[in-house]
């Protein structure tokens, strides 16, 4: 399920914790070889994410430690999967193995699951708020992911109910304000058309960022554009853009995406303007980890 890049990320996390000497504290415990079953327990309610990664983390730590580690379901009738909501104090998974090995993997395991669950929980809150007023709205992430973590951050966003934007710079065209700096307004449509004739591959989509309704009107003339990113538009400007798009028979051909400074408190107001998409960097760039502990 996971790419080699993500496996390398876990290996790096293992290496930065164990170094050359391993867990020198746990090695001192006389009962370190005794088998234990530890429980992963959220300290606060949230959307679980990272359970699918747990076996890979334990596998790679097992190889490094030379001791078996098994990531599995909790005891009892209920099992948990990524995307499930867990209440505080509920065991959601277990780690079985020698005490010293379980203690060695503890922090890395919790770091991964905590961040991913935090993103999924935060994302779900945005999705619920937006869809309460606009059931068709798409909430998307951005490239504001932790370097090296993009696969995991984007997976957590999907688990939270949102969608992913472009994968990187290589799979979609997105002209932003710095690309367009210096292009006169009355030459914008012609310039974009000329630039797009240079495409040598078929991108996932073609998108253009605008910061005003005058730019928006110009971009609407470029038939190759699939999405217009309305950056820091007020709700009134967003409604005007929707009305302009629809009046020019572009509904279904041109998607409108709002972005810039959107918070949980404002996302519903943005969604009810009738736009199609909202992209939110806050989903991943500064999220708080869900507090999850490991109990013996």
Quick take:
Helix content is 38%, strand content 17%.
Using brief descriptors, characterize the structure shown:
296 residues, six-stranded parallel beta sheet, 17% strand, alpha/beta, elongated
Question: What features would you describe in this structure?
Answer:
This protein has 296 residues and is an alpha/beta fold. It contains ten helices and twelve strands. The protein is elongated, with a radius of gyration of 23 Å. It starts with a helix and ends with a strand.
Which strands sit side by side, in order, in the main sheet?
6-11-10-9-8-7
SSE sequence, one letter per element: HEEHEEEHEHEHHEHEHEHEHE
Structural class: alpha/beta
Low-confidence stretches: none
Strand count, sense and barrel status of the largest sheet are: 6 strands, parallel
- Give the rounded overall mean pLDDT: 97
- The level of helicity is 25-40%
Q: How far apart are the termini?
A: 29 Å
Shape: elongated
Please give the radius of gyration in angstroms.
23 Å
Strand content: 15-25%
| Count of distinct strands | 12
Set out the fold topology.
Layout: H1 4-18, E1 35-42, E2 46-47, H2 54-65, E3 69-72, E4 85-86, E5 93-98, H3 99-131, E6 138-140, H4 150-159, E7 173-175, H5 177-180, H6 188-196, E8 206-210, H7 213-219, E9 227-231, H8 235-247, E10 255-259, H9 267-271, E11 277-279, H10 282-285, E12 292-295
Parallel strand pairs: 6-11, 7-8, 8-9, 9-10, 10-11
Antiparallel strand pairs: 1-5, 1-12, 2-4, 3-5
């Amino acid at each position: 399920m996971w790419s080699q890049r993500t496996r390398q990320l876990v290996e790096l996390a293992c290496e930065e914790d164990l170094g050359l000497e391993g867990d020198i504290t746990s090695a001192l415990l006389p009962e370190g070889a005794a088998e234990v079953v530890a429980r992963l327990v959220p300290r606060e309610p949230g959307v679980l994410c990272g359970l699918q990664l747990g076996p890979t983390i334990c596998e790679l730590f097992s190889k490094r430690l030379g001791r078996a580690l098994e990531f599995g379901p909790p005891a009892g009738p209920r099992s948990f999967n990524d995307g499930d909501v867990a209440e505080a104090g509920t065991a959601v998974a277990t780690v079985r193995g020698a005490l010293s090995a379980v203690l060695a993997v503890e922090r890395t395991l919790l770091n991964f699951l905590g961040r991913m669950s935090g993103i999924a929980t935060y994302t779900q809150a945005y999705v619920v708020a937006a869809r309460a007023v606009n059931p068709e709205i798409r909430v998307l992430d951005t490239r504001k992911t932790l370097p090296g973590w993009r696969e995991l951050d984007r997976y957590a966003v999907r688990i939270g109910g949102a969608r992913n934007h472009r994968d990187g710079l290589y799979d979609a065209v997105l002209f932003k304000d710095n690309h367009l700096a210096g292009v006169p307004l009355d030459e914008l449509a012609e310039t974009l058309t000329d630039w797009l004739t240079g495409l040598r591959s078929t991108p996932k989509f073609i998108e253009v960022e605008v910061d005003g309704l005058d730019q928006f009107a110009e971009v609407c003339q470029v038939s190759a554009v699939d999405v217009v990113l309305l950056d820091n538009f007020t709700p009134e400007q967003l409604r005007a853009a929707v009305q302009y798009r629809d009046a020019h028979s572009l509904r279904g051909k041109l998607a409108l995406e709002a972005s810039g400074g959107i918070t949980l408190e404002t996302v519903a107001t943005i969604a009810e303007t009738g736009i199609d998409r909202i992209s939110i960097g806050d989903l991943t760039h500064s999220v708080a980890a869900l507090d999850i502990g490991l109990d013996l």
